Amino acid sequence: KAGVTQTPRYLIKTRGQQVTLSCSPISGHRSVSWYQQTPGQGLQFLFEYFSETQRNKGNFPGRFSGRQFSNSRSEMNVSTLELGDSALYLCASSVPASSYNEQFFGPGTRLTVL
Amino acid sequence: AQKVTQAQTEISVVEKEDVTLDCVYETRDTTYYLFWYKQPPSGELVFLIRRNSFDEQNEISGRYSWNFQKSTSSFNFTITASQVVDSAVYFCALSEGEGGADGLTFGKGTHLIIQP
Q1: Cβ contact (<8 Å) for B47 and A105?
Q2: Is the CB of B29 inside 8 Å of chain A's CB atoms?
Q3: CA-wise closest residue to A103 among B75, B112, B36
Q4: Per DSSP, what are the bridge partners of residue B91?
Q5: Which pLDDT tens digit goes with each residue over B67-102?
């Protein structure tokens, strides 16, 4: 079974631009979560999608948004990029059920904002 | 609000030594899940273990073992006879409730260095 894939792996943008990151979950997984990892703040939860609906969102400004498609693939978008948005963005997929299932993480997209 | 504390920022040991990574958590929920993940230099988080709040049994998997104690809100991870390949950043994480919608709250991580 193929793992979680994220594209692109590396991205360089300048302040003020916007960026879209993509995540393809493991086949059969319907929940996709996004996390931001920075040296200062560590790993922080951005949002979670299930069946094309955002079920929860972390404490991030509205510049961070996402969506999920009917095939469970997900995208996240960051508008008006700031230097502080430079980070590793990790996507995770899981099979939601009555009890929590482990999240499987992709390799991440490393975003650098200049 | 939930919180995970990994007080050890970095640990360095010589190969074959045993090492314990500490994790202390805070939550108001009675139903919660605890996790350990490993992050090698490649960046991808690798799932190691999940434990729910109703299961205090310790677990052993090869050289890895986990000690969950609700009385002290701790979920510590021990590597026995460490190997150079164990070098990585290890994260402890917490999720409240069920269904996976709430996201994981991670500790700051412990950078484990195994010297040959």
Answers
A1: yes
A2: no
A3: B36
A4: B37
A5: 999 999 999 999 999 999 999 999 999 988 665 567
Cα B31 from Cα B2, distance rounded (Å): 12
Alpha-carbon span B79 to A30, nearest angstrom: 33
pLDDT (tens digit per residue) in B19-69: 999 999 999 988 888 999 999 988 889 999 888 888 888 888 899 999 999
Q: How far apart are CA A53 and CA A41, in angstroms?
A: 27
Distance in Å, alpha carbon of A102 to nearest chain B alpha carbon: 7
Please return the burial class of A21, using the count of CB atoms within 10 Å of its CB with bins 0-12, 13-18 and 19+: buried
- What confidence category does residue A98 fall into, taking pLDDT thresholds of 50, 70 and 90? very low
- Give one DSSP letter per residue of A66-80, joined into a string: EEE-TTS-EEEEE-S
Contact A32, A103 (CB under 8 A): no
**Is the link from the previous residue into B116 a cis peptide, with omega within 30 of 0?**
no
